[in-house]
Amino acid sequence: MKNEAMQSRPIRASTAKIVRASDSYAAEQGSIYRSGVAAESVGSTMLWLGMISLPAGRRTSAHRHEGHETALLMTAGKEIEIWSGTRLERRDQVHPGDYLFIPAGVPHVAVNRSSENAEFLGARNDPAANESVVLMPELDDIVP
């Protein structure tokens, strides 16, 4: 029984791993991602860490992340708006140096109305580079 349990567990890395900068890709919701630590890059089983950009004058589609929490640190840009809640009823301003937490399952939209790209360091408890995004087009027209 012990051998069967051990065989079903993922093999964990026995040394530290360095991840060099990766190519960026457009996420389904419209932001630009550059994965660092991910299942694909280092075999992470519980964590994704990377950079997320929202270009100047752009916004994401309304969406939620069903299975994971997201933590962000705004590292560059002027400010963005984050709209969140069941009907996107809450609007907050995020500035460089601010941390942002998005609970699992919470609908949200990020809007960058400035002339500068917004940059974030992001982490989530889903190790996949292509995260569990659920688009919510029925909410897209709520955010101007």
TrEMBL record:
It comes from Mesorhizobium tamadayense. This is Cupin domain-containing protein. Residues 51-121 form the Cupin type-2 domain. InterPro entries: Cupin_2, RmlC-like_jellyroll, RmlC_Cupin_sf, UCP037087. It comes from the Bacteria.
